[in-house]
Amino acid sequence: MSALRAEGVVRRFGGLRAVDGVDLTVPSGVVTALIGPNGAGKSTLFDCLAGGRVDAGRVHLGARDVTRLPAHRRARLGLARTFQAVSVFPGLTVVDNLRVAAENRFGSSAPARLLGLPDPARGRTRDAVEAALDRLALTEHADTPAGELPAGILRMVELARALAASPSVLLLDEPASGLDDAQTERLRRELRALAADGLAILLVEHDMDLVFGVADTVHVMAAGRIVAAGTPDEIRRDARAREVYL
Ligand SMILES: Nc1ncnc2c1ncn2[C@@H]1O[C@H](COP(=O)(O)OP(=O)(O)OP(=O)(O)O)[C@@H](O)[C@H]1O
To answer: Which of 66, 69, 89, 197 has the fewest Cβ atoms within 10 Å of its own Cβ atom?
Structure first.
């Protein structure tokens, strides 16, 4: 079963159908990319999947219909996202940024806290934070306030924060923007490794070298619709994809 699925999703802004009846499946264990020209509707569709308003159609997370669930409820069900503009808390250390995300996912037991009892959520939070720091080689920056880090590292913190929530579905909005070539290659390897671990990944990205180097399936969007879908090789040769974007 696909981890995340949009069926006939529509999102309007006044008279504009920014997302105009989109079907999209994001399976576990692969990287699915969404590309298209500026204004195609990629970010709007991304928001529909992450928890924004949907005017028609359905969004399923696993077997569950989440169309009417807000973002924080979807996050607790295992959907994590990053933002186009890095959105970490600049005044918090890296480890605290990750802890906030992990606590939002796992919660923490107020009765246990009040009674001084062991809180199982605390252990899960700590383990998830440590694993995310380690995975993205951020341990040396753990105690640095996020606002003091350079843009490339901050992008990795943004990704680590999403991973700290131990997601089953990861939505990435232009994760390579602001990265140099070496950092982009690092990101590519990490995305392949995460997919190999079984994560469902949806990547919205303008860096075509990254998209074609990392994606298993590429969907091309234009004027609110998916106009082509296939493997990177198929999309490179697709007349409609070339006409609207490549
Ligand atoms: N809040 C909004 N109010 C009105 N129109 C909007 C709003 N957000 C997006 N749009 C319009 O919806 C359409 C799709 O925009 P969207 O940002 O989803 O495209 P995109 O493919 O993500 O573009 P980009 O690659 O530049 O990020 C555009 O015509 C845009 O102007």
So the answer is: 197
> Ligand 1, atom 2: nearest CA belongs to which residue?
13
- Indicate which atom in ligand 1 lies nearest the CA of residue 14: 4
- Is 79 exposed, middle or buried, given 0-12, 13-18 or 19+ CB atoms closer than 10 A? buried
> How many C-beta atoms lie closer than 10 Å to residue 110's C-beta?
9
pTM: 0.90
- Nearest ligand 1 atom to the CA of 43 is 22
**Ligand 1 atom 6: the closest Cα is on which residue?**
13
Q: What is the pLDDT of residues 217-232, one digit of tens each?
A: 999 999 999 999 999 9
Cβ(172)–Cβ(82) below 8 Å: yes
Overall CATH class of domain 1-78+167-245: alpha beta
Nearest-CA residue for atom 31 of ligand 1: 39
Give tens-digit pLDDT for 17-69: 999 999 999 999 999 999 999 999 999 999 999 999 999 999 999 999 999 99
